[in-house]
Amino acid sequence: MTTRGLEAAPGRSPLGEWSWPWLLRVTAAICLFGAEAIHTAVIGVHLRAFAADGLFFFGLSLAEGSLAVALLLRPTERVIRGAFELSLFTIILWVWSRTIGLPPGSPEAIGRADLCSTGFEAVTALALAPMALAPEALRWVARHRHQLIAVAIGVAVAGLARWGLAQPHLHPVGHLGHDPSQFRPGD
Question: What is each CA distance from 155 to 127, 143, 165, in whole angstroms?
């Protein structure tokens, strides 16, 4: 396999006109658009359940879409930091609502759309971190990367385990003494 053409001239990206910061911003913008689409789709359901929730999702969707456009057209330091912080805030709020609950004591179930939008927000935060964080913060993350990875894996495993155990419509076919022949497709 040859790498001819991928060698960069001094000071240039091997991507040519596509610099790494540009590629990271575009990745973040695409993921913000994905999270925005999911959040827009749930506004009506949340409005009917509790107006404040619907308004929150409306504002979140508006902010994500606006920041995605700004990342593509006017990627200032303020826009990059705002998109980074909004993504982190949304992830933290989601984890809180699925573990402790909002209000506390009433954790919500984890759904496919939740996981997708939170995944989009995580990719956004990771893509923008090198540009949003101060050099000291990046050095701290680099020094503690193994601990951070361990925590992330622990949170992912706990969340998936909780999700897997909290799905009442999923039958443990062939497990826990259940006879698989009792279940019909679509149960």
Answer: 20, 20, 15
